[in-house]
Design a protein that fits this description.
39% of the residues lie in helices and 13% in strands. It has a seven-stranded parallel beta sheet with strand order 3-2-1-4-5-6-7, with helices on both faces. Helix 6 links the parallel strand 5 and strand 6. The structure holds NADP nicotinamide-adenine-dinucleotide phosphate. NADP nicotinamide-adenine-dinucleotide phosphate binds next to helix 1.
Length: 234
């Protein structure tokens, strides 16, 4: 049976490519995007008119997230996988502390840390109705405190560390429902966020990640992992 997947931030980058890969695998994808009329999504929709369902979704806006969940609920009673992928950097993220705008960090926290929680909360009954359901929070090695060697990107690193804590809390809470919750570092990818010098093509990264998500079927095992499934230090 076709799986039902929700991907946030599906307009471009990794989210778009994860969407594409799941569609190629024959699954049904609810592609959450702030602008569902984006050219990329519309072009993909032409190839998958029945299984790609674009859904308007701004993860910072509770009303938008709730409306998205309601809309998904009009198509299906369950979700098998939620991919919380949407994320941002603040405009001064890469500046040293003296030049970083600390107030900008709030917007990053809203998207990167609270956005996934809003989505999971709104979709709780859908994901609880799934069989062997999974919630994948796309995190980053930047969120690892144990492996941190950086001295800037305060907004991004701190919000991904907070996402990791959110992941662990959700994993504890949803364990009784047998829902797997992971925080996954996807690798350094050539997207708008990753830039042109990154190691990985985002489509190839998406293929590797989707295979990894399919293979991981046990609640036991590491929760914060890299793109090869290896445990990453919190
Ligand atoms: N690229 C890397 O090397 C790298 C490394 C480690 C981790 N990651 C993580 O991988 C994930 C994907 O990153 P990427 O490189 O694909 O980033 P990207 O190319 O910058 O794409 C970000 C996506 O997030 C969406 N988004 C931003 N704010 C949103 C909001 N408020 N509501 C809904 N969607 C929103 C964007 O939508 P719009 O088109 O509407 O702006 C876009 O689809 C992120 O979680 C990122 O932190 C990336």
């Amino acid at each position: 049976m076709k799986k039902k997947i929700l991907v946030t931030g599906a307009s471009r980058g990794l989210g778009f490519n994860i969407t594409r890969k799941y569609l190629e695998n024959g699954e049904t994808v609810f592609a959450g995007a702030r602008d569902i009329t984006s050219e990329k999504l519309q072009a993909l929709k032409e190839n998958y008119p029945d299984t790609l369902i674009p859904i308007t979704l701004d993860v910072t806006d509770t009303a938008s997230v709730n409306a998205a969940a309601k809309s998904i609920g009009s198509y299906t009673e369950h979700l098998d996988v939620i991919i919380n992928n949407a994320a941002i950097h603040s405009p001064t993220s890469f500046e040293i502390l003296e030049r970083a705008d600390i107030d900008d960090c709030m917007a990053t926290y809203d998207v990167n840390s609270l956005g996934p929680l809003r989505v999971v909360k709104a979709c709780l009954s859908l994901i609880r109705n799934g069989d062997g359901a999974k919630i994948i929070n796309i995190s980053s090695e930047s969120g690892s405190i144990g492996a941190c060697g950086r001295d800037r990107e305060f907004d991004y690193c701190m919000t991904k560390a907070a996402l990791n804590m959110g992941t662990k809390l959700l994993a504890n809470y949803l364990n009784k429902d047998k829902i797997l919750v992971l925080a996954v570092h996807p690798g350094w990818m050539r997207t708008d966020m990753g830039g042109p010098n990154a190691h990985l093509d985002p489509y190839e990264a998406a293929c590797q990640l989707v295979e990894l998500f399919e293979k991981r079927n046990t609640l036991d095992g590491p929760i914060f992992i890299d793109n090869e499934g290896e445990e990453y230090p919190w």
